[in-house]
Amino acid sequence: MGNTGVRACSSRCAPLCSAVLSVFCAVCGILLSILAGTPVGSTIVAVDIAAFCLFTLAGRLKGGASA
Asked: How many CA atoms lie within 13 A of 36 on its CB side?
């Protein structure tokens, strides 16, 4: 099997990390939408995309597989 993107986490850690990240992104998106006066849903999606980009960059810097 190739790189799954979850090498750093065990099978028990990955769902927990995902849930924590989801809640964090949702809270940040809600707060940012209140402060910026933007729609909540699209702001949460923008925060999710930013988190995805940060994790992708961190994975590539660490030497993970490139897509």
From this structure: 13
What is the residue type of 41? G
Q: Report whether 21 contacts 51 (CB < 8 A).
A: yes
Q: Cα separations (Å) of 8 from 4, 18, 32? A: 10, 13, 30
Least confident of 28-32, 55-59, 63-67: 63-67
Write out the DSSP string of 23-59.
HHHHHHHHHHHHHHT--HHHHHHHHHHHHHHHHHHHH
Listed residue (26, 29, 20, 25) closest to 9, CA to CA: 20
